[in-house]
Amino acid sequence: LILAVGMLAAVESEPSEVVGYFKKTINAGSFQTFTLPFAYNSFSVNDIIGDQFAQDDMIMDINLGITTMYYSGYGWDGELTDLEYGNAYYANRAISNGQNTFFLLGKVEPQAFTKTIMGNGSFTAFGLNEATPINIIGAESPFGILPSDGDMVLEIDTGISTTYYEGYGWDGELQVITPTNGYYYNSAIGSNSFVWTYTPSRSSVNKQDLSGSKVKK
After folding, report:
1. Measured between alpha carbons, how far is 173 from 180 in angstroms, rounded to an integer?
2. Which tens digit of pLDDT belongs to each residue from 111-156?
3. Which of 18, 108, 159, 213 has its Cβ near the most Cβ atoms within 10 Å?
4. What's the pLDDT score for residue 4?
């Protein structure tokens, strides 16, 4: 996390709050993921992203497929009106607009979220509301007792992954969940959907509130 000295003055916050930003770059004509690493009082796309994009650029909720388009002189407009903790989004840069650098600014106060992970080989997009990398392997793992044998986590933009092997744990090139990056949870064939509640590592516990057949006692 890089703290912005010059930009912090423009962000409303209490004196005791820690405020920071992440810088993201998107290439012309491409789709690149982003997620929310900070806490917000307003979840409006216009409030969080603002006018950092250009005419015909688009943001899409990866799981739902709903979108919002940027119109110069007006702002964002579409079915996607608000962003959410734990969701992963595609930012699509119109090829005519060239490469773009945008910033995600906010209060460093990781928030919990609950998400349904679809089963039977489905892909569910997600991201963690964290401003620091979170290890997939070990006690810090955000997935706890969730995985079934053959479950996989993939980083959407790079395609690198890690797979869960029952009796062994996670193994693969993907070792950490990186702030602002989007991921897929790919469930094993034959597995059921389950509910995942993530409590950020800054909390006193990092727990999962589970339901369904994937709960292991």
Report:
1. 19
2. 999 999 999 999 999 999 999 999 998 878 898 767 789 999 999 9
3. 108
4. 37
Three-state SS at 72? coil
Quick one: DSSP state of residue 39?
B
Residue 201 has what pLDDT? 67
| Residues β-bridged to residue 117 | 194
Residue with tokens 């607009």: 97
78: alpha, beta or left? (left if phi > 0; alpha if psi -120 to 50): left
Name the DSSP class of 97: G
In DSSP terms, 154 is beta-bridged to: 161, 184
| pTM greater than 0.70 | yes
pLDDT at 121: 95
Phi, psi at 135, each rounded to 5°: -65, 135
